[in-house]
Amino acid sequence: MRQAIESRGPKPGELLHHSDRGCQYTSEDYQSTLRTLGISCSMSRTGCCYDNAVMERFFWSLKHEWTKFETFADIQDARLSVFRYIETFYNTDRIHQSLDYLTPNQFEAQHANVLAA
C-alpha cells in the first residue's frame, strides 16, 4: 500500500481500500493509518468473498500463476517476486474481464483523461 500511495500520489478521499475482515486490517493501528491518509475502507461482509471479488481473484492469480511452485530464500526475495509479477506481468500482459479484456495499463491509458479529472 505504501508503494502504491508513493507512486500514485492520490489526494485524500480519492482512494478506496478493499480488504477482508482479517485482524491485520481491522486493527486500530491499521484503521488509524487509513484515516490519517484519507483512505476510505471497504471490507467484505463476514463469509462473503463476492464483496471483494476482484481482489480475491488477484490473490488467486498471484498464488496460482506465479508463486505456487516457488520457494523464497527470505522475505526480500518474496517481495521482489511479487513486485515482478505485478509490474512485469499482471499490469502489462494479463487481460482482465472486469476491464473489458484490457490489461490494467491499457485500461489506464484509455481512461487517462477521466482519471486525470
Shape: globular
Specify Rg, calculated over alpha carbons.
16 Å
Class of secondary structure makeup: mainly alpha
Number of strands: 2
Oligomerization status of the protein chains = single chain
Between the first and last Cα atoms, what is the distance in angstroms? 23 Å
Q: Unreliable runs, pLDDT <50, ≥5 residues?
A: none
Question: Secondary-structure element sequence?
Answer: HEHHEHHHH
Number of helices: 7
What can be said about the biggest beta sheet?
Answer: 2 strands, parallel
Total number of distinct structural domains: 2
**Portion in beta strands:** 5-15%
Output the strand order for the largest sheet: 1-2
Helix content: 40-55%
Overall pLDDT, averaged? 86
SSE map:
Blueprint: H1 2-8, E1 16-19, H2 23-26, H3 28-36, E2 40-43, H4 53-67, H5 75-90, H6 104-110, H7 112-116
Parallel strand pairs: 1-2
The gist of it:
Helices cover 54% and strands 7% of the residues. The protein has 117 residues and is mainly alpha-helical.
Q: Can you put this structure into words, describing what you see?
A:
By secondary structure, the protein is mostly helical. The protein has two domains: 1-43, no CATH class; 49-117, no CATH class. The protein is 54% helix and 7% strand. The protein is built from seven helices and two strands. It has helices at 2-8, 23-26, 28-36, 53-67, 75-90, 104-110, 112-116; strands at residues 16-19, 40-43. A two-stranded parallel sheet has the order 1-2. The protein is globular. The relative contact order is 0.08.
